[in-house]
Fold:
Amino acid sequence: MDYFVGIDIAKRFFDAAVKVRGKNRHRQFPNTAAGFLKFLDWLESLEITTAQFCMEATSTYWERLAYFLSDRGDEVSVVNPACIRKFAQSALKRTKTDKVDAIVIGEFCKAMKPALWIPPAPEVKELQGLMRRMHSLAKMRQQEKNRLAMDKDEEDVTASVERTLKFLDAEIDRVQKKIEKVFAKSEQLQRKRELLVSIPGIGDETAKVVLSEVPALDMFTNARQLAAYAGLTPKEFRSGDMIRGKTRLSKTGSGRLRSALYLPAIVAKQVNPVVREFYERLLKQGKPPMLAVCAAMRKLMHIIFGVLKSDKPFTAALSTA
Structure:
């Protein structure tokens, strides 16, 4: 590949940069379908017909452009923003603008050759959209319930909140039914859900989140890579013989996956024999309970990888060290 296009993407616009004959070329485009076509016209004016496109996984702003390019057959890489930030620091980049960021992303792509992004299957994409909508509706419902408790002495406010709650409950029910229809149409999704709920500590709702947020499993060669994708790998501050600060989760990954595994880990350390033994061993070593819970989350993700990769229900043998 001769050309590596770095894309710094935001909600309304994206900046693209590519090095042509030793000179960086840059332009900004609207993050819309019309902007995507203008982007292609710009590349054509530079006589670029094939390239590897690289962008950061910033919120969900990158998704439409990534799908657009992938549907065309282009090579697309979607990388963790923390990787780009560390690369920029190693290159001693002191200026930070959208243009500079796009150039750095292009340089990162050329130097590091990141793995290509594999778009999820259509049914997984549909499930992801519905699950994220469900999360938003549930959050709104909880906010309204909190208002109801606070404003119970105000009749007009209470009536308004109750009407809103009724609407939200109905909408949540509609989305839940659509989610079940997605599973009904896909034997593969049904099979994976059955595998996940065979893991003690993993319930149906957690299984749905995992299936909607984990991309193609072929992107990961081992369980540690999947745990890193969820931001569940430990981050330690060590210099020489000195350890500075507490070991924490890196959190440079999918926040949705991380959040979805917290309560299951709490349950798993009581009902899952593998997680329970692991958790108790850490406590005996003097590890703080919260650190042990985070480690239990990571262990649970390893088990999830083993179950899905092997296509077999949970057994203790599927646990990875």
In short: The two ends are 38 Å apart (CA to CA).
